[in-house]
Design goal:
Layout: E1 4-8, H1 11-24, E2 29-34, E3 40-41, H2 46-50, E4 61-63, H3 65-72, E5 75-78, E6 80-86, E7 91-96, E8 102-106, E9 109-112, E10 116-118, E11 132-133, H4 138-151, E12 155-159, H5 163-174, E13 178-183, H6 194-206, E14 210-213, E15 217-221, E16 226-229, E17 234-236, E18 239-242, E19 246-248, H7 251-255, E20 266-267, E21 279-281, E22 286-289, E23 296-297, H8 302-316, E24 330-334, E25 337-343, H9 346-352, E26 357-361, E27 376-382, E28 389-396, H10 400-412, H11 417-420, H12 437-449, E29 455-456, H13 461-466, E30 470-473, H14 477-480, E31 489-490, E32 509-512, H15 517-528, E33 533-536, H16 539-547, E34 575-578, H17 586-596, E35 603-608, H18 617-624, E36 627-634, E37 637-643, H19 646-650
Helix pairs in contact: 1-8, 6-16
C-alpha cells in the first residue's frame, strides 16, 4: 500500500520537498496544502517588482499550481488552510477558504513548511492606520505596488533596517518617493558589525534617504499619515512599510503539542523530525543549529529552506540524511553597494564568550590598472590559536559575492585561515589580482597567528592615545589633509628608518596608515629594530567609516546654486584626472598635483572608484579654499568637479 504524504505550505521548503518526493517515488500520494493562491514564488524578488526593476509580474512565479501538478503528479490544494493536526490519529483538519468547507485528511508522514510572518507590534494607532504595509507574499506585493501606482505617494517611511527594509527603501526611492528609514538599533543590517554597517549608513544618506537610528515608533496618528517616534519627533508620511523582522508560523505546531524553542521555532532533530517522529518541519518556522557555534538559532533564509526541503523529503522516504546546520551566508544589494556575510559576527561571538581575532583589509575587486576596479571592505573573524574561521563580512561595488562564497566554502570544508593563503583562485586583470582578496585576508590572519603582527582595533585606538599611547601615522602629509586620527604623529613610511632614534623603546608604539598595508611595513621595520609595535587594523579607512575625521565638516559649495537639471557637460573643464582603481596614496597625490597645475578659477574633473580615499574631498576643498561644484556617480565611477581658488590656496597649503 502506498504512503500518503501531506505537506503544509509551499514556496522554498514545501515545494522543494514535494518535487523531491516525486523524484524518489512514483507510488507515493503527495498532497500539498497552501493557504494562498501561489505555491512557489520568488519572494526575494518582490521588492524589485515594486521598484519596477522586475517589470513582468509573471517572472515572480517559479511554478504554477497547474504546471507543478502536471509535472510532478501532485494533489495541490491552494486556497486551503490546515486548521489543526491530530498526531495521535495522524489526521489533519483542512478548510477550503473559498467554499468554507472543512474536512479531515489522513497522513502517513506530515511535513510542516508554514514559513514566518512579519512581526507587527501593538503600536497605538495601528488599527486606524490606512497606509501601513508589510511584505511577505504576492498579495502583499500587489497591494503595495497598486498603492504606489495609483496614489503616487511623495513620502514613505520604512520601519526596520533589515534586508527587506533596505531593499524596499531602495525600490521606493527608485519610484521617486522621499524615503525615511527608522531603525531602533544603532545600525542597520544586524548580521554585520557596526563599523561595516557604518559604511552603508554614509552610502544610504548620500542617496538621499533620511536614516534615523536608535529611535523607534511610539505611535501612529492621522490614520497613519503621521508617525510619532520614541523621542517625540513627528514625521509626515504617505505610506509606511513595517519591516522589523519575522516570527515563525508555529500555531499548528503549538496546538499539536510539538516542542517549540525559546524563540517560538519548531524544534527539529538533525533529520528534521519534530518531537513527533511522523511529523517533519523545514524553513523559516524551524529552529536550526548555528553551524559555527552549534547553538540553536532562527535564521530565515531561502537557501537553507531549499536544502532542508530536499533532506526532509529524503528522510520521509526512509533515508537518514543529516542537516548539519545553517551558516547564515547572505547577501543584499544596498543601492550601488553589495553587502555579504557568512558565519558569526563579533556581536554573536561576544555574547557566547568566544575568544576571537579580527582583520580588516581594503583590496580592489580586480587589478587596479584594469578599468572598473572597485574597493572591497573585507572583514575576517577567526580563532588566533587554531586558525578556525568564525565568519566574514564584505562590502563593495563589485566582487563581494565571490569572496564571501569562497570563505563560506572554506568554512564548510574545515579550512583554517592559513589555508586561505594557499587557495588557487582564478585570476586575470578584469576579474581579480594575482593575490586575491581572500588570499590577502589569509596572509594578514596568518601573520597574526605567527606573531609577526599585533593589532589594535578601530574602537580601541582613541582611548590608547588619550591614555598617552604613541600613535604614528605613516601616510604622506598630504593624505592627512583628508583626515587623521586625533593625537597621531606623522612620520611618513619612507622617513621612518631615519627617525628611529627619536622614538622611545620603553613603550609600545602604535602605527596607522590608510588601509593597513603601510602600517604593517612600518611595524616590521620597528619590530626588527627592537621596538614593541601594534598596527591599527584596517587603517584610517576602517576608523573613519565610524568616526569620520577631525577636519571641518561645515561645507558650503556651489552645488546648491546649480540647478539639478543643469547638464554636467556644460561645466567648462580645464583638466581631467582619472584615479580609478589606484590605491593609496596615489588618488590624493594625483589630485594635489593636478590642482597645483591649474590657474585660479579653472576647473578640475576627477574620477574615482575608491571614494574612501577621497572621503573628505568636500571638507578638504572647503579648507583649501577651492569650490566643489558638483558630484555625480556613473555606475562604479564617482566624478567630482572642483574649481581652484588661488587666493585662499596660498594661505592654506
Amino acid at each position: 500500500m502506498s504512503q500518503k504524504l501531506i505537506i503544509v505550505g509551499g514556496v522554498a521548503g514545501g515545494a522543494t520537498a514535494a518535487a523531491r518526493l516525486r523524484r524518489i517515488s512514483e507510488d507515493v500520494e503527495i498532497v500539498l496544502i497552501e493557504r494562498g493562491e501561489y505555491i512557489s514564488f520568488a519572494n526575494c524578488g518582490l521588492p524589485y517588482y515594486i521598484g519596477e526593476t522586475i517589470k513582468d509580474r509573471s517572472k515572480l512565479l517559479v511554478q504554477t499550481v497547474k504546471g507543478m501538478s502536471n509535472r510532478f503528479n501532485l494533489d495541490i490544494r491552494n486556497f486551503s488552510e490546515v486548521l489543526s493536526i491530530n498526531p495521535k490519529n495522524k489526521k489533519v483538519t483542512i478548510k477550503n477558504l473559498q467554499s468554507g468547507k472543512e474536512y479531515e485528511e489522513s497522513y502517513d508522514k506530515l511535513l510542516l513548511s508554514p514559513g514566518a510572518k512579519p512581526i507587527v507590534p501593538p503600536i497605538p494607532g495601528l488599527s486606524e492606520n490606512e497606509v501601513l504595509f508589510t511584505l511577505r507574499n504576492i498579495p502583499d506585493t500587489d497591494k503595495i505596488k497598486k498603492y504606489v501606482d495609483t496614489n503616487q505617494p511623495k513620502k514613505a517611511i520604512v520601519i526596520g533596517g533589515g534586508f527587506i527594509g533596505i531593499e524596499m527603501a531602495e525600490n521606493l526611492l527608485e519610484r521617486g518617493i522621499e524615503v525615511t528609514i527608522i531603525e531602533m538599533a544603532k545600525q542597520i543590517m544586524a548580521p554585520i558589525d557596526f563599523e561595516m554597517a557604518s559604511i552603508l549608513h554614509g552610502n544610504i544618506k548620500e542617496k538621499g534617504v533620511n536614516l534615523i537610528l536608535e529611535n523607534g515608533v511610539q505611535a501612529f496618528a492621522n490614520k497613519g499619515k503621521k508617525v510619532i517616534l520614541s523621542d517625540g519627533t513627528e514625521i509626515e508620511t504617505d505610506m509606511t512599510i513595517l519591516s522589523i523582522g519575522v516570527k515563525p508560523e508555529n500555531e499548528l505546531a503549538k496546538v499539536a503539542g510539538l516542542e517549540l524553542g525559546e524563540r517560538g521555532g519548531i524544534v527539529v532533530n538533525e533529520y528534521l523530525q519534530t518531537s513527533n517522529e511522523d511529523i517533519y518541519a523545514v524553513g523559516d518556522a524551524v529552529e536550526v543549529v548555528d553551524y559555527i557555534s552549534g547553538k540553536k538559532a532562527m535564521i530565515p533564509l531561502a537557501g537553507p529552506a531549499n536544502r532542508q526541503g530536499r533532506i526532509a523529503a529524503n528522510n520521509m522516504m526512509g533515508k537518514k540524511e543529516k542537516y548539519h546546520g545553517t551558516l547564515g551566508t547572505s547577501i543584499v544589494k544596498v543601492f550601488d553597494l553589495t553587502v555579504a556575510t557568512t558565519g558569526n559576527n563579533e556581536k554573536t561571538l561576544k555574547s557566547l564568550g568566544v575568544s576571537y581575532e579580527v582583520v580588516h583589509i581594503h583590496p580592489s575587486s580586480h587589478a587596479g590598472y584594469y578599468p572598473g576596479a572597485a574597493p572591497i571592505a573585507l572583514k575576517l573573524i577567526f580563532d588566533k590559536e587554531t586558525g578556525k574561521i568564525f565568519g566574514a563580512q564584505a562590502i563593495g561595488a563589485d566582487g563581494v559575492d565571490k569572496r564571501i562564497d569562497v570563505i563560506a566554502t572554506a568554512i564548510k570544508g574545515g579550512l583554517k585561515v592559513n589555508d586561505l593563503t594557499n587557495l588557487e583562485l582564478s585570476y586575470a586583470p578584469p576579474y581579480s589580482s594575482a593575490k586575491d582578496p581572500v588570499n590577502m585576508a589569509g596572509y594578514v590572519a596568518s601573520n597574526i597567528m605567527e606573531g609577526e603582527l599585533e593589532m589594535v582595533q578601530w574602537h580601541e585606538i582613541d582611548e590608547i592615545v588619550k591614555d598617552g599611547g604613541l600613535l604614528i601615522d605613516v601616510r604622506e602629509p598630504m593624505e592627512r589633509e583628508f583626515g587623521y586620527i586625533k593625537g597621531s604623529l606623522n612620520i611618513p613610511l619612507d622617513e621612518l628608518r631615519n627617525r628611529l632614534d627619536s622614538l622611545p623603546k620603553e613603550q609600545t608604539i602604535y602605527v596607522s596608515c590608510q588601509v593597513g598595508l603601510r602600517g604593517y611595513l612600518a611595524s616590521r621595520i620597528l619590530k626588527n629594530s627592537g621596538y614593541t609595535v601594534k598596527n591599527v587594523d584596517g587603517g584610517f579607512k576602517t576608523y573613519s567609516s565610524v568616526f569620520k575625521s577631525v577636519i571641518n565638516k561645515t561645507i558650503e559649495t556651489k552645488t546648491n546654486q546649480l540647478e539639478e537639471s543643469e547638464d554636467i557637460d556644460e561645466i567648462p573643464v580645464n583638466a581631467v584626472v582619472d584615479v580609478t582603481g589606484l590605491s593609496c596614496p596615489m588618488p590624493i597625490v594625483k589630485l594635489k598635483k593636478a590642482i597645483e597645475q591649474l590657474d585660479s578659477g579653472q576647473i578640475l574633473e576627477i574620477h574615482v572608484t575608491d571614494k574612501g580615499a577621497l572621503n573628505d574631498l568636500p571638507a578638504w576643498s572647503k579648507n583649501a579654499g577651492h569650490i566643489l561644484l558638483k558630484t555625480k556617480q556613473e555606475e562604479k565611477v564617482i566624478k567630482f568637479w572642483i574649481e581652484k581658488n588661488e587666493e585662499k590656496l596660498k594661505g592654506s597649503i
